[in-house]
Amino acid sequence: MRGLKFIAITMAAGLALTACGGAGGQGEKAGETSEMSKPGGAGGDVGVFTWWAAGSEKEGLNALEEMFKEKYPNDTFKNLAVAGGAGSNAKAKLAADLQNNNPPDSFQGHAGAELLDYIDADQIVPVNGVIDGLGGDKVFPANLLELLTVGDSIYSVPSNIHRANVVWANPKVLAKAKITETPKDVEAWIADMKKLKAAGVATPITVAGTWTQLHLFETILIADLGADEYVKLFTKEGKWDSDQVKKAVSHYKQILSYANTASDGDDWPGATDMVIDGKAAYNVMGDWAVAEFAAKKQKDGKDYIYFPVPGSDGVFDFLADSFTLPKGAKNEGGAKDWLNLVGSAEGQKAFNLKKGSIPARTDVPVEDFPPYQQSAMKSFKSDKIVPSIAHGAAVRVAWSSDMSSAISKFYSDKDEAALLAALAKAHEKNAQ
Ligand code: GAL
């Protein structure tokens, strides 16, 4: 059984994500022992592949790089980042490198469905020994580990957890339309966008290239369907022709009518910066955006505010970055040094402080983080957790690519019936 399945349930602690086919929690793989790094590191070049090539994302990677150099002076960090948010360019380059047996020593992959592609293609190898050495399920939520697990094998080391369903807003722009309250659902939110337009705000909400549109669309689906129905969409029984999905598509179309005109190459920082610069009121973006606000010296609560996409309060649209050990990595020892750093409490603190995400580990002190991340940690503990489509958690790359194509076409033709048909077709083709 190769499918990872999510169920949305409220849990007091830990993730409410269940992978079928997972090991049912952390288990030592036969014959493996924990793998701590040698003092100073294994030596040699360590090529690390990500899409954290610029801006606040690069700052997160830099924090890890600096610590890596300090802890493992024998190793030489090679930054193989390929620019483009959500891996929009990186994933194709990575696929080609893996195909040509030229893997990096470690690469960024999302926890959940996306990892299955690499596992099925036999491109990554288990890292149970590293996870055990880091503390296993004493320090990583068992259900997060399950999203990295097939059979008894754990296939990556999680670095962080991001929330995708967040609206970032400029209160000064909202004040122009006298908006002081958070809208309770999508309809009320669209009504606020109308007020903003009437008050002379040319761009109530921003979008960038296709992946940011898919990202926005998934959050509207969550708001209109609720956590339980949203999660069912990714099962064989998923109903992509339901009235709620139709409603979400219509809401999404209305929201786009209040957005800027984007071209496909536009990346997320531009869309978030329009809010920072007072050119727009809202941007729906994963909480890597908070790092952009921080990097631009914006003050939480004064220069920017944030809230869950209206109608999705109490739901945490989840994604997690993790790092793999590719089959045939040239420097396996150095790669394990990197994985040990990424999975360590100090590495997770340094990285997540810069990245806007929350640590995947549960033993990094909450009070070490600024208010947004503290609120995300709290939500993560009490909310229903659902998987992101645009960021590899809910569906495999083939399915999200089909959805991206449909969303991209919709951006130009705005044909609701055609989008619904394409989404249903993508489900029929890809659901397992
Ligand atoms: C996600 C990734 C995040 C962030 C974002 C924007 O897919 O998981 O860490 O980098 O893309 O690029």
Q: Helix fraction?
A: 40-55%
User: What's the helix-strand series?
Assistant: EHEHEHHHEEEEHHEHHHEHEEHHEHEHH
Low-confidence stretches: 1-5, 7-32
Ligand catalogue? beta-D-galactopyranose
Rg over CA atoms, rounded to whole Å, is 21 Å
Blueprint of the fold:
Elements: E1 44-49, H1 55-71, E2 75-79, H2 90-99, E3 106-110, H3 113-120, H4 128-134, H5 142-146, E4 149-150, E5 153-154, E6 157-163, E7 166-169, H6 171-176, H7 186-198, E8 203-206, H8 210-232, H9 243-256, H10 268-276, E9 280-284, H11 289-295, E10 305-308, E11 315-323, H12 332-342, H13 345-355, E12 358-359, H14 371-382, E13 384-387, H15 397-413, H16 416-430
Parallel strand pairs: 1-2, 1-3, 8-9, 11-13
Antiparallel strand pairs: 3-11, 4-5, 6-11, 6-12, 7-9, 7-10
Helix pairs in contact: 1-12, 1-13, 8-9, 8-15, 15-16
Bound molecules: beta-D-galactopyranose (GAL).
